[in-house]
Amino acid sequence: MNDKTARESDNLAAAAKQRDAEAVDEHFSDVPDEEPLQDQVRSAEEPSAEEQLAQLQTELEDAKKRTLLSQAELENFRKRTRRDMEQERQYALLPLLRDLLPAIDNLELALAVDSSESDASGVIEGVRMVAQQLNGVLKENHCETIEAQGLAFDPEVHEAVEQRETDEHEAGMVIEVRQTGYQLRDRVIRPARVVVARASGNRPIDAESAGDALENEV
Length: 218
Fold this sequence. Notes:
Elements (H helix, E strand, L loop, with lengths): L2 H27 L7 H9 L3 H42 L3 H18 L8 H21 L2 E3 L12 E8 L8 E6 L2 E3 L2 E4 L1 E7 L11 H8 L1
Parallel strand pairs: 2-6
Antiparallel strand pairs: 1-4, 3-6, 4-5
Helix pairs in contact: 4-5
């Protein structure tokens, strides 16, 4: 084969390849472009807008139900707490009263004694024991007597009902307790009613202003 024939053959082969390539391009040019594989996977995993809206509505309804349930439980808790507190207030004295009952029983026994068949000293001793028992119950419940006899007058816990001239005691000292005072922990329930010493020659004053005058004297 001469050179001319070889060149013609090569040209024909190249032309054939070119036609084949153009035919392939023309075939695939009519096929629509497909989404990339990653976009296809994402589209398959993500719900549609309608599905997302329905899911949100379901979650909102569940949240409302949980809120209503929590509110109901809180209201029930408040009612139980108020009821328990009311019962505590109503029966707060129950332990104290239970402790007082034995003392009352002993007092009734002492009063039931026939005075014609027993001496008065025995009855007095029984009543004294009951009084000690009652004071013990009060002390156990943090209620104690207020000390006053022989102490300086204290208007915070004492109430002066009388001033008495004396040279045996310093002015402003408590020389007699007319009525015992009581305090619960650090709060005065009833002040001790007392008689207070006043130096001889001082002008008497009324009991209501005794506290102020005693403070000045002391």
